[in-house]
Amino acid sequence: xxxxxxxxxxxxxxxASFSSLLLHIxxxxxxxxxxxxxxxxxxxxxxxxxxxxxxxxxxxLLFHYLPTMNEAYxxxxxxxxxxxxxxxxxxxxxxxxxxxxxxxxxxxVRVFVTGAFGSHRSFNWILGLGLxxxxxxxxxxxxxxxxxxxSLWAWxxxxxxxxxxxxxxxxxxxLLFGPHDPxxxxxxxxxxxxxxxxxxxxxxxxxxxxxxxxxxxxxxPL
Length: 222
Known about the structure:
Blueprint: H1 5-25, H2 43-62, H3 72-81, H4 86-114, H5 122-144, H6 149-162, H7 169-177, H8 184-216
Helix pairs in contact: 2-4, 3-4, 4-5, 5-8, 6-7
């Protein structure tokens, strides 16, 4: 008995979609203009590579970090001074994070200065702004996870600022930075943002952003 027509149509559509995905990841043909070295140094692509390094080193750090008030800072010291290659992995994670922030900011400045955000690329500019905000916030939450004196004051200031908007301020501050009184729940909340929520959002936005670049065409610096 032959397959139903709708089933064959669904199979054809799924195969076409999968083929398009593979071609998007590894296209057979790359425009010559896209392979030339420009003054921008492909800062968006380099930022994506920094994010990949952040993901790998972050997973390695998860094996030793403890998100509690009494164990957070000692666990970071144990990573730095006791864990095998901990000093190297922690510093690689830290510096790649800072480089990623710089690359994303410079990339956004380049896009703005050259006017590459106009016309049909305006939506991708909005995605880029979302990536910039997410990058800054994931960097800040990583700084808070150290939980030394400076991190505690940074958390206090950030939470007070988040609490200033009327009506939604208290809810927003608790959602982002945990309860008003420092405790284990504060670090768990920040840990959740830094390790799961923000990386997931950045991965989704990054995939959408790169797909829009492929669809809209690579902008040429003016």
